[in-house]
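BACKBONE GEOMETRY TOKENS:
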Amino acid sequence: MLQSSNVLLAGALATVLVGCAQPGANLQSNVYRAGQVNQQQEARVIDILAVLPAKVEVSNAQNKASAQIVGGVLGVLAGAAIGSKFGGMGLGGLAGGGAGVAAGSLVPDSALVDGVSLTYTEGGRTLNSAQVGRMCDYKPGKAIVISTGPGETRIQPNDTCPTKTATN
């Protein structure tokens, strides 16, 4: 059986890793939900004038819930392991589970993810739209904006980010 210190260390590490998963990827302009696929959508050509860095606050609820579950399970295991040394395996597991869930609750409710603020012209007007994405996905010039609903601007990436290559 694992030593209790190893279980505690594994639990703490797993809780931290679960809580650090990157939220917001589903909000990028080139990500679609199943109901939006194979549907006609309005598309327009715009001219991007400026690409500026931005931060977008997104929900971190899924990561928080995962951290609470992982923390609770690992806390039960660690608490039971510690409690078995003192003859109170059930009570130790219960206390450890509670502590694990509490530790998972420390994951924040929201997170900041990388985004861009795109200033563009359309129909003689100068407009701006914030998008979840990377600076290297966009450049000044022509781009396509897709709208799946009123007021929605899904400005499609008009550039590609460099790929990392392995060096020998």
Summary: The two ends are 42 Å apart (CA to CA).
